[in-house]
Automatic annotation (TrEMBL):
Keywords: 4Fe-4S, DNA damage, DNA repair, DNA-binding, Endonuclease, Glycosidase, Hydrolase, Iron, Iron-sulfur, Lyase, Metal-binding, Nuclease. NCBIfam families: nth (TIGR01083). Residues 38-186 form the HhH-GPD domain. It is an enzyme of class 4 (lyase). Belongs to the Nth/MutY family. GO terms for molecular function: 4 iron, 4 sulfur cluster binding; class I DNA-(apurinic or apyrimidinic site) endonuclease activity; DNA binding; DNA N-glycosylase activity; metal ion binding. This is Endonuclease III. InterPro entries: DNA_glycosylase, Endonuclease-III-like_CS2, Endonuclease3_FeS-loop_motif, Endouclease-III_FeS-bd_BS, HhH-GPD_domain, HhH_base_excis_C, HhH_motif, Nth. Binds 1 [4Fe-4S] cluster. The gene is nth. Its EC number is 4.2.99.18. [4Fe-4S] cluster binds at C188, C195, C198, C204. It comes from Candidatus Cohnella colombiensis. The lineage of its organism: Bacteria, Bacillati, Bacillota, Bacilli, Bacillales. DNA repair enzyme that has both DNA N-glycosylase activity and AP-lyase activity. The DNA N-glycosylase activity releases various damaged pyrimidines from DNA by cleaving the N-glycosidic bond, leaving an AP (apurinic/apyrimidinic) site. The AP-lyase activity cleaves the phosphodiester bond 3' to the AP site by a beta-elimination, leaving a 3'-terminal unsaturated sugar and a product with a terminal 5'-phosphate.
Length: 222
């Protein structure tokens, strides 16, 4: 894909979702890091329901370490993989206290060293908490990028990220991440995407195939 085509895609998605933003509720970098960690294989909506009470009970890394692991597990039981995530949260808090003075580090390289924090989580934190341009590739960004031909079907998450970084102006990386998520979450869904009203269907092989099949079906029945 060339940058001219990408520009059209970016502008179109911007018109559809001008107010796209991080939907995980948080008040500071520490809460954002915990929320993103919890969001792996879980919807933002469920995470927000859990963190309403979680962030009132636990406000500092020390708070998470002052309870038994079983209690923390119970507090996040509605989240998928809650046992593993509870363990990672306590390990993360210990490292943040011991190595970073109780504060979430600003550097990407230091963030990915934290338990439960991968490249995607680190990108979300640096971009939303610290204003550093980044494109985090989650399931929505990955799906949309491949459907629209920005990336190939067998590209890894890292390859998708690199292609987006190359095609999208750096100052637009963070907002593009949010808009691609909104586009994937509310329009180009995994199941039942809105191909029939999609202004970008011309770039989507899957969408064009679906529309062609629908037209053929209508012509047979008419």
């Amino acid at each position: 894909m060339n940058k001219t085509t990408m520009r059209h895609i970016l502008d179109t998605i911007a018109e559809l979702f001008p107010d796209a933003h991080c939907e995980l509720n948080h008040r500071n970098p520490f809460e954002l890091t915990i929320a993103v960690l919890l969001s792996a294989q879980c919807t933002d909506e469920t995470v927000n329901k859990v963190t309403v009470n979680l962030f009132e009970k636990y406000k500092t890394p020390e708070d998470y370490l002052n309870v038994p692991l079983e209690e923390l597990e119970n507090d996040i039981r509605r989240i998928g993989l809650f046992r593993n995530k509870a363990s990672n949260i306590q390990k993360l808090c210990r490292l943040v206290i011991d190595k970073h003075g109780g504060e979430i580090p600003h550097e990407h390289e230091q963030l990915v060293e934290l338990p439960g924090v991968g490249r995607k989580t680190a990108n979300v934190v640096v971009s939303n908490a610290f204003g550093v341009p980044a494109i985090a590739v989650d399931t929505h960004v990955d799906r949309v990028s491949k459907r629209l031909g920005i990336a190939k079907k067998d590209d890894s998450v890292l390859e998708v990220e690199k292609k987006l970084m190359r095609l999208v102006p750096k100052e637009e990386w963070t907002i593009t991440h949010h808009r691609l998520i909104f586009f994937g979450r509310y329009h180009c869904k995994a199941q039942n995407p809105k191909c029939e009203v999609c202004p970008l269907v011309a770039y989507c092989k899957e969408g064009k195939s679906k529309m062609k099949a629908a037209l053929s079906k209508r012509s047979v029945t008419s």
